[in-house]
Amino acid sequence: MTEGVPQLPSQRALGDLVTDVMRDMITGGRFEPGQHLKESELADALDVSRGPIRQALARLEQEGHVEIRRHRGAFISTLTRTDVEEVHTLRGAIERLAASRACTRLDATGFAELDAVLDEMKSVSTPIAPEDAARLDLRFHDIIYTYSQHGRVQRVWESIRGQVTVFLRARNASFPDFGQVGHSEHKELRDALALADPRAAEDAIDKHILGAYERLKRLDLPDR
């Protein structure tokens, strides 16, 4: 449990720090779906008391990473078809808006940021680790949300970003084709944004995120 756990800096609230570390551990695949998270073990591993652990688990439950079961404790959430459908439809709604706004607000600096991520995608070795593929994917989309210049949309994105990370990791673990399609699919989206046409940007986003959703639907997931 303690191997590879980062040191916690002291300048931020401990509960927030523990939440961030545990979220990274979950989205990075350190725990298995359905795994029981024991407060005592987590506290020992992170060298904190149980209080910040409980705060973190409550936050992570709100974000959908953890299920807290009465009298049984906390468990890593199991990916279900309902989860995938709900997050996909919500992401589709907010990202269409983000892209339609970003396409008229992206400047030379913004496109340079997108192109830098595309260059990394193009140079990845095959096969790429699922968490690394998810990280590159989300970096690209983070830029779109930043240039949407819409604070509320960005906050909604941050609230589901962790779950999207889990979904993308599952998608890349089950369909290890990011090395073949990651660059080309995101390049197509980048070129649509460069048209500065909100309708074209919306259509490109719809097509882009549908691919990941269709792959996830092919997994043998429980309904709920």
From TrEMBL:
Residues 12-79 form the HTH gntR-type domain. The keyword DNA-binding applies. GO terms for molecular function: DNA binding; DNA-binding transcription factor activity. Transmembrane segments: none annotated. It comes from the Bacteria. It holds the Pfam family GntR. Keywords: DNA-binding, Transcription, Transcription regulation. InterPro entries: GntR_C, TF_FadR/GntR_C, Tscrpt_reg_HTH_GntR, WH-like_DNA-bd_sf, WH_DNA-bd_sf. CDD domains: WHTH_GntR. This is DNA-binding transcriptional regulator, GntR family. The lineage of its organism: Bacteria, Bacillati, Actinomycetota, Actinomycetes, Propionibacteriales.
